[in-house]
Amino acid sequence: MLQTSDIKKIVIAGAGLMGASMAQIFARHGYSVTLYDISAESIDKGKNLIAINQRSLIDQGEVSDSLSGETLSRISYTMEKDVFREADFVIESIVENMKVKLDFWKEASDIASDNAVLTTNTSGLSISEIATAVRKPERFCGMHWVNPPHIVPLVEVIGGEKTAEDTIKVVCDLALSVRKHPVAVRGDPQGFIMNRLQYAVLREALHIVEKGYASVKDVDDVVKYGLGMRYACIGPFETVDLGGLDTFFRVGSYLAAELSNAKDVQEPLAKLYREGAYGTKSGKGFYDYSNGGAERAIEKRDKDFLKLAKCLYGDL
Ligand SMILES: NC(=O)c1ccc[n+]([C@@H]2O[C@H](COP(=O)([O-])OP(=O)(O)OC[C@H]3O[C@@H](n4cnc5c(N)ncnc54)[C@H](O)[C@@H]3O)[C@@H](O)[C@H]2O)c1
Questions:
Q1: CA atoms within 13 A on the CB side of 307
Q2: In the prediction, which pLDDT does 193 show?
Q3: Quick one: which of 31, 87, 252, 264 has the fewest CB in 10 Å?
């Protein structure tokens, strides 16, 4: 298997929201990147997303025109499967559907060289199950990025049943080489780590709203102005150490029984889902995004994330 320093050519399958963003990260750090997709329309969309991202990074003074030009010159686009033959490293970031991913990997891992390192950006499908379609599955693992990946540092590197330890190491080292923060996840747990934590918070947030203790906006404010600010700097265990285990033990002993233990998607979310209110993508979710609200929300998120990332971690 290739070592991190041997990796020069990266192929990203899926020129969508995640693939287009990840391509810029690797290209910016000197890798030659090819975005592969099955649809010409998706490739055009991916190109457009990259152009928008680069423009906003230039406008915010994050990259110079010339660095952005160099980044763009290292990204190519194709619909030819043969591209996997030359790949040192593959990230599959196609639609989140087990059958589509299995079909993809059966073909791609056959074409790829024996030495190539192969990864999937699945949000939570079983790595071991996807690996059943991969030729030489010991070189395959999960590489889960967080949206928007060109700004957020975390990358979860998830081993499946057959993943070799060396594979985890190469993928973690590659993430470090593009200034990301990898965390190795063992045992292929559903939802990995970040989504398990995210859904634990979401479950309690929905419970609070259902009980009428606070509005959707007030719950968001509690996270933004309190918990989230804390968690951007210290994790839950550091929080306990700094607050005192005795206090956290005492609070936990009466609060644990009060918290939601819902085993299904709760009604405030399920109801909006049934109504087709999917959030920014449909113009309505918990909030209204009509009249350009969606674009403004995405732009504000990216700007705020960028300010925070710069402030806490320096240059991207
Ligand atoms: N969007 C997120 O916030 C997020 C975060 C982390 C991980 N992910 C995961 O990343 C993956 C991609 O998500 P996305 O949001 O970029 O989706 P997307 O819909 O924006 O892009 C998916 C792309 O895959 C292409 N595609 C579909 N089938 C293909 C195939 N067989 N071969 C090649 N290309 C194919 C589509 O044409 C499309 O361009 C999913 O597995 C998703 O769960 C998404």
A1: 5
A2: 96
A3: 264
Euclidean distance between the first and the last CA atom of the chain, given in angstroms as a whole number:
29
Intervals of the chain under pLDDT 70: 316
Residue ranges around ligand 1 (CB below 6 Å) = 13-19, 37-39, 42, 93-96, 100, 104, 121-123, 144-145, 147
Please give the positions annotated as active site.
Answer: 123, 144, 156, 195
Q: What pLDDT does residue 57 have?
A: 87
277-293 tens-digit pLDDT: 999 999 999 999 999 99
- Residue 155 · residue 182 · CB < 8 Å: yes
Using the atom order of ligand 1, give the atom closest to the CA of residue 123.
43
- pTM, two decimals, is 0.93
Q: What are phi and psi of 221, to 5 degrees?
A: -65, -40
